[in-house]
Amino acid sequence: MNPSFWKDNVNKATYWENFIAEFGKEFLKEYRLPEGDIVEYGSYKGNFINTLKNLYPLRKITGFDQDNLDNHENIIELDIRNLSSMREYDCSIAFAINDIPIWEHSGLSKMAAYNHAMTNLVDGGYYLESRKEIDKPEFISANKNLKFIKSTKNIVVFQRISET
Ligand SMILES: C[S@@+](CC[C@H](N)C(=O)[O-])C[C@H]1O[C@@H](n2cnc3c(N)ncnc32)[C@H](O)[C@@H]1O
Q: Is 17 close to ligand 1, i.e. is its CB under 6 Å away?
């Protein structure tokens, strides 16, 4: 499946970019981020990144996407599946957003984003994932380093905790 299929429906894309940014804003009113960077996997045109920049002007905020359609200054254009072999993007992440399309369609890319987040997320940091309720992968809820925080129909958030 072509991973860019998501962009073919402009109405859906616009609805989603506003929905996730609004969810993020409300979430961040309630939960305080530890120190660290903000990373979004699957940034599209950077709408959510812009919201985050307004909320956290002093944090390092990086988006990854295979197409940086509007040449957004915070978005790095790369195929997320190559991230695991690149050390230059290792960092301390306070808030990781995995908005690669759903597991059912983009499993390898979604997994690559999850792996990068799990390697770099600090204790107390948050991991937000877009998903379809029906195809939620069990291994994430079984991860002993992740504590469930909240969910809506299409978004789930976990917090990183240390195992001991
Ligand atoms: C749901 S959209 C992201 C929407 C965005 N977070 C927002 O708030 O506007 C998913 C994005 O994932 C990107 N994507 C899908 N597979 C990818 C891959 N293998 N590497 C990098 N980006 C990928 C697509 O290009 C698309 O822009």
A: yes
